[in-house]
Write a sequence for this structure.
């Protein structure tokens, strides 16, 4: 049967990623072995679970309190998961009760407010948000950081209203990204300067694929600190703020010499490339 399988020339790249690439081809389909491996991996089930699994806010608050963070709990206008998935607009606005709670705290005016939102993967928010904060917050010693807001049934733009009500200079939404078949727990970071209801995606920066298997916490924190610093200097985020943080990383080791010549293969892109919000 192996004579009928066309192997993909990118096969060596499979050693570098969990993504389902370079599987080969048998006729107009994938070979039997990767097909069976896919079915046994329960990848679809993990992705569905990530979307529907509720965020354990109690455990999240406990973890944050143990690290001496002050926290708040809010809910979007979507009353449950079904409404959240069918009505994305409801996930972008606060419930009346949550709005009233935040309005009472408007005199705090922090420099930065971090929001942890379930988004489309509560797995990501539960697993990645706290370690990321542990890596990022120590780099913000000269910033006034507001309470950590834990948001249920949240979309990215929910952070705009939260930041506006708290009079924050910058809001950072840490939110579960749409799960992929090999990454059901990937966290996205969305940074918005002068947040207010109605901000567009062009007004924020995104750092994606934050997880140990993708963009690790120290590198994500480095990128976030770079964006913070230049957002404050320029008074903006979004398309006018470019992420050139890789230039300030320690120099990579020299390329190995193979057969008497330097390896001239191009450097692969960073796994957490900055992109606009979706």
């Amino acid at each position: 049967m192996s004579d009928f399988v066309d192997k993909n020339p990118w096969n060596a790249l499979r050693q570098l990623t969990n993504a389902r690439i370079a599987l080969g081809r048998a006729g107009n389909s994938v070979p039997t072995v990767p097909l069976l491996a896919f079915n046994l991996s329960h990848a679809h089930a993990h992705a569905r679970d990530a979307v529907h699994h509720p965020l354990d806010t109690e455990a999240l608050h406990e973890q944050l309190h143990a690290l001496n963070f002050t926290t708040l709990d809010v809910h979007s206008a979507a009353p449950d998961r079904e409404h959240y998935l069918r009505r994305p607009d409801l996930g972008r606005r606060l419930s009346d009760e949550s709005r009233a709670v935040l309005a009472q705290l408007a005199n705090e005016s922090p420099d930065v407010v971090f929001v942890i939102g379930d988004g489309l993967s509560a797995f990501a928010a539960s697993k990645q948000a706290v370690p990321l904060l542990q890596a990022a917050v120590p780099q913000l010693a000269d910033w006034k950081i507001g309470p950590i807001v834990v948001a249920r049934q949240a979309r990215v733009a929910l952070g705009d209203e939260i930041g506006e009500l708290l009079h924050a200079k910058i809001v950072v939404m840490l939110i579960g990204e749409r799960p992929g078949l090999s990454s059901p727990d990937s966290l996205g970071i969305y940074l918005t300067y002068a947040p207010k209801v109605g901000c567009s995606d062009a007004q924020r920066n995104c750092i994606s694929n934050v997880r140990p298997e993708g963009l690790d916490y120290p590198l994500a924190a480095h990128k976030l600190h770079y964006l913070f610093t230049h957002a404050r200097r320029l008074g903006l985020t979004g398309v006018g703020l470019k992420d050139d943080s890789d230039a300030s990383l320690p120099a990579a080791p020299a390329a190995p010499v193979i057969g008497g010549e330097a390896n001239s293969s191009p450097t692969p892109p960073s796994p957490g490339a900055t992109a606009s919000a979706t």
Q: What stands out?
A: The chain has two domains: 2-41, 53-244. Confidence is low (pLDDT under 50) at residues 255-278. The chain is about 30% helix and 15% strand. Residues 2-41 form one domain.
